[in-house]
């Protein structure tokens, strides 16, 4: 079983600040560093560290060789990452003293993924495989359509939120993952509560409160609590959750078990500074869960 992830690849430029700047305010950063990131990259690394086989579908510029090499080091299949004329995407990540973040994205190559790359990448995919995607690349509906036609599980993390992008793929989804804010935005955009959407499994992440799984076939909801930790940096926690959740399901876990695994991985992630480079591996997650 394989997870095919149509996902962004970014250079994450981190700036630690005493607080987020207000309009017209200039602040000196107390620390600065570069890391590997992008929602897609984070999810690929998380799923690979959760023992799944992950093929990343994406693009970088000529300046992105280091990012592809690092993804390969982290166990991700990078043979379906194209090099395009656009520069590699990057993100400016501001971190305040409480560990909260504010992020500015420059998409670059993430919005220039070649049209034929998806069909080539998923040529050998079967109904036992999973297609995962987010809102930081082009070709989202094309990828979901190809995957749905093959009978693959189609999983979508609706972030950064865009109502038109979500509406375009909703009929093709098997699993929808959102946070509380995105769920409220989607309800407002569609006029429907998430419980009534035409997607079988919906997971709403609740930050420090954990996550809620809604099975729309049965109408049942299950709350999975988060582990109590002291956050250092919340960047990438949601992506880590999604990668671990999809990996657990890909490995045949029941939803409740996969959710427990994912909430533990996300809790461990917020105790670390950084994104893809510090995502915990399966051994660390099991140790945090007590064995």
Automatic annotation (TrEMBL):
Subcellular location: Cytoplasm
Enzymatic reactions: D-ribose + ATP = D-ribose 5-phosphate + ADP + H(+)
Carbohydrate kinase PfkB domain ranges (all copies): 6-280
Keywords: ATP-binding, Carbohydrate metabolism, Cytoplasm, Kinase, Magnesium, Metal-binding, Nucleotide-binding, Potassium, Transferase
Binding of ATP, residues: 179, 205-210, 238-239
Domain of life per record: Bacteria
Subunit structure: Homodimer.
Protein name: Ribokinase
Species of the source: Mesobacterium hydrothermale
Lineage: Bacteria, Pseudomonadati, Pseudomonadota, Alphaproteobacteria, Rhodobacterales
